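FORM 7B: Structural annotation worksheet

SECTION A. Query
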Amino acid sequence: MNAIAAWFGLLASAAMPAYTTYKYLAYAHAPGEFDDAHEAALVTLFIAQLPLCILAAVFAAVSHLDGPAWRRVLAFVIVVAIIAAIGGFWRLAFDSQMGSIIGWAIAMQLMIIAVAGPQPALARARIDAVAYDSANLFILAVFAILIGCTVALALLIYTRGPDGVSRIEYQWSDLAWIVGGYFACRTWSAIYVFTLSFEARGKGYFQRPWIDWAILHILGKPRQYDSDP
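SECTION B. Predicted structure
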């Protein structure tokens, strides 16, 4: 039974980021085969990763609460409502695409909290690790996109010919390769927490001192970290 639950958890965690990776890489490879609505949906899906990262952190924190399920459900609802009110995320409910993505995530997490009961230590560690990785990877992806835009702009400027036209061709769809890489890393993060390496290490694959150091410098808050394998 535990093996079946582990395989189900693995598939449930990795299936969506894996499918999204495929959608982004397919678009990056042949953007002309997709219409504007598809492009807008992909952009919305990436932007939605910010509130989804916050939801993952709340879900991870609530999973550590013991006692009856209603306490975890109540805590989750209250914290999400406060964050939505303070951050203005409640306005996303009026966006059909963004609202459905976030609404589905909230519904799934509430169902797990209400039905699964208190999570064992290993399950809690997996939830914590995936939530930690998702935050790290989102920040790195945004930074990579900014670097990509900067490099592309520099190339367009410095490769202009005598006629003022750049000798390279750049499309916004090229950034989809970066986002596809982000979702590929999210897929591996979800798979990694079900490996023996995770059970031995106890941390997410992208929970590394050098990654934490880089992100804290990106955010302007450098801090010393102890070494970690």
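SECTION C. Observations
The chain has a mean pLDDT of 83. Residues 42 and 147 are 20 Å apart (CA to CA).

SECTION D. Sign-off
Analyst initials: ____
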